[in-house]
Write a structure and sequence with these properties.
9 strands; Lysozyme
Length: 419
């Protein structure tokens, strides 16, 4: 679900070959895998350097990227350029001398910081984290657990949406060339890849992928002043349709509207980078289950989304009797998948937390499923997930729903989920 993955899929689809993925965050292990012929190429935000070039070969560049510093926003609302900005805020990379910067162990960032420390005459403290990846370290900066980390500019574009308290404006280097790595002495394979990359970079598909991951335009923008919950009780042009379908399945139309707003901002043509489509952001596999032919059709999309919510509610009904509590599990499952939520319940049981309580119990372990310590646990079936986004989804949807409950009439809709 990222830049490298979409390029790999485009390559494999064109060549009609299968893509087999092997995931790890360790640069040295990735290179060793090439040397051992465990796989054919390494596709990361890989910046070629002299040390690695002695072991592997690199393709022509796929894109340009640069590293940025991850740090808290300046205190007291000061801008980074303001003369009164916090002394802790790093504006220039030379100011890092004497600071501790946390990065994933054996990562591209680690290698670069060692070079930077040499340039600075030493004094840069590099803390290599063998447990956490880039996203987890960004989260730790947000929680004030660490002061600084490093990420690619590409990553910062995505993370700005989730961490408004983090500043990514300080560049650490000039643009770096991103390439794929392959085993040495493979001239035909290298030529084959280079020919495809050079040709593919001239296509509109490549431009679309770059726009999606390298610009701030990846967010759906929506504004419509005609609909306002304070003026006449209307939320969108789909109110009547949502009321009709919600009533049939015994859901509160205001809850469904809260989900639709969070998923698509009432845009029936919205499409996420993961392929979710329409008002309720249904995946193609969900559409197939509920016999939906056109995901952009508002009626079909809402019917599929509410049907799926009903299915999830039936799963949790025997194990979480309290309706208010159950709704949190249903919303989380709608956002991230019921398998991941069930994994979090198993972890809660293992660590003596309550598997039927969301706050500070199951939500805690869903968030922890982005850490190898937890997603590699034997009780976990569905592996890694970014639980932080799901926690935000549940919180935002419920906050909006409670707001709608206070302002909007129910419309005669006796709800299964109404509080």
């Amino acid at each position: 679900m990222g830049f490298q993955y979409e390029l790999l899929k485009a390559f494999c689809d064109e060549k009609d070959i299968d893509l087999e993925l092997v995931g790890n965050n360790d640069l040295s292990k990735s290179i060793q895998g090439l040397l051992n012929n465990d796989y054919d190429l390494v596709a990361k935000n890989f910046t070629p350097n002299v040390k690695e070039s002695e072991q592997v070969d690199f393709t022509v560049p796929l894109a340009l990227n640069h590293f940025v510093l991850v740090q808290s926003q300046p205190e007291n609302g000061d801008t980074p350029s303001g003369i009164h900005a916090s002394s802790k805020f790093i504006k220039y990379r030379s100011d890092l001398k004497g600071k501790s910067v946390h990065v994933p162990k054996n990562s591209d960032f680690s290698h670069y910081l060692k070079l930077l420390s040499t340039d600075l005459g030493g004094g840069l403290i590099i803390v290599e984290d063998s447990l956490n990846g880039t996203e987890q370290l960004i989260e730790m900066v947000s929680k004030k657990e660490i002061d600084f980390s490093v990420c690619n500019e590409t990553t910062s574009v995505a993370m700005k949406k989730h961490f408004s308290d983090i500043n990514f404006s300080t560049p650490l280097c000039l643009d770096q060339k991103i390439s794929w790595a392959i085993a040495k002495n493979s001239p035909e394979w290298e030529e084959y890849l280079n020919e495809w990359i050079l040709r593919f970079k001239k296509t509109s598909r490549y431009e679309e992928i770059c726009e999606r991951y390298f610009s701030d335009k990846s967010d759906i923008k929506f504004s419509n002043r005609e609909y306002n919950s304070f003026l006449g009780g209307r939320l969108s042009e789909f109110d009547e349709l949502i009321k009709e379908i919600s009533g049939f399945y015994h859901w509160d139309w205001r809850l469904i509207s809260s989900i639709v707003f969070q998923e698509s901002k009432f845009n029936p043509f919205a499409k996420s980078i993961s392929g979710a489509t329409g008002l309720m952001q249904l995946m193609p596999v969900t559409a197939a289950i509920y016999n939906i032919d056109d995901l952009n059709d508002p009626r079909e999309n809402i019917r599929g989304g509410v049907s799926y919510l009903t299915y999830l509610d039936q799963i949790f009904l025997p194990i979480i009797l309290d309706r208010t509590e159950r709704l949190k599990f249903v919303l989380a499952s709608y956002n991230i998948g019921v398998g991941h939520v069930m994994d979090a319940r198993k972890l809660a049981m293992k660590y003596n937390r309550d598997p039927s309580v969301w706050k500070d119990n199951v939500d805690y372990f869903l968030m922890k499923k982005s850490s190898p310590l937890y997603y590699n646990d034997p009780v976990v079936k569905w592996g890694y997930c970014r639980g932080e986004e799901s926690l935000n989804f549940v919180s935002i949807v419920l906050d909006k729903y409670y707001h709608y409950l206070n302002i909007l009439p129910s419309g005669g809709n006796n709800s299964l989920a109404s509080l």
